[in-house]
Design a protein that fits this description.
The protein is 26% helix and 23% strand. The protein has four helices and eleven strands. The strands form three sheets. The chain has a seven-stranded mixed beta sheet with strand order 2-3-1-4-11-6-7, sandwiched between helices. A two-stranded antiparallel ribbon has the order 5-10. A two-stranded antiparallel sheet has the order 8-9. The longest helix is centred in the N-terminal third of the chain and has 14 residues. The two termini are 24 Å apart. It comes from Aquibacillus salsiterrae.
Length: 188
């Protein structure tokens, strides 16, 4: 088997997330597939797989989002297809918090709060710690629990967090999460 494409999963696909990941891919390197996502994701998994295989630079950032819809949506289908492809290695995931009404959750390696601190507690959409240790409520994230990923980092809403992850500030929380995945995934 040839070299596997290194992929980072981001469980958010709204406009802020797309712009932030495009910006950070330009800063850190890699290929953002933000044009293939939305809120919710609607692109067939086959198209995402093809784009990953054709990406010129690694890592490849894949944004998935089911907009709070319960059950298996396109986001989960995309994630499942990526995980099953032997030519793809998911080196980490950023699990983005959502409102607790969603009731989907996953375990994570650690979280990064809106001040940039690594913590064992979950965070809410604003990146504020919640009293839940080791798990986060979110959208399109329950499937992360079923995969054997080397690193899952929980953060608040990408590009937002009451302005603390604003792209004008360099999106420091999202950037830190990506830099840690880069380091542990052998990309630095």
């Amino acid at each position: 088997m040839g070299k596997q494409k290194k992929v980072i999963i981001i469980t958010d696909g709204d406009e802020y997330a797309r712009k932030t990941i495009d910006y950070l891919a330009n800063q850190l390197g890699g290929t953002s597939l933000s044009e293939l996502t939305n809120n919710p994701s609607k692109v067939p998994p086959e198209k995402v797989l093809q784009a990953v295989h054709e990406a010129k630079q690694e890592p490849v950032y894949v944004l998935i989002d089911d907009a709070g819809v319960q059950g298996v949506g396109f986001g989960e289908k995309i994630l499942s297809s990526l995980a099953e492809d032997p030519k793809i290695e998911i080196i980490g995931a950023i699990a983005v918090a959502a409102h607790t009404k969603n009731m989907e959750w996953c375990r994570f390696t650690f979280a990064i709060d809106n001040e940039g601190n690594q913590i064992p507690y979950g965070v809410d959409k604003k990146g504020i710690p919640i009293p839940e240790v080791g798990r986060i409520n979110g959208d399109t994230i329950y499937l992360l629990d079923q995969l054997d990923l080397p690193l899952v980092i929980a953060i608040g809403d990408i590009g937002k967090m009451d302005g603390k992850d604003d792209i004008k500030k360099g999106s420091p929380v999202t950037r830190k999460a990506l830099e840690i995945i880069f380091e542990r995934g052998g990309l630095t």
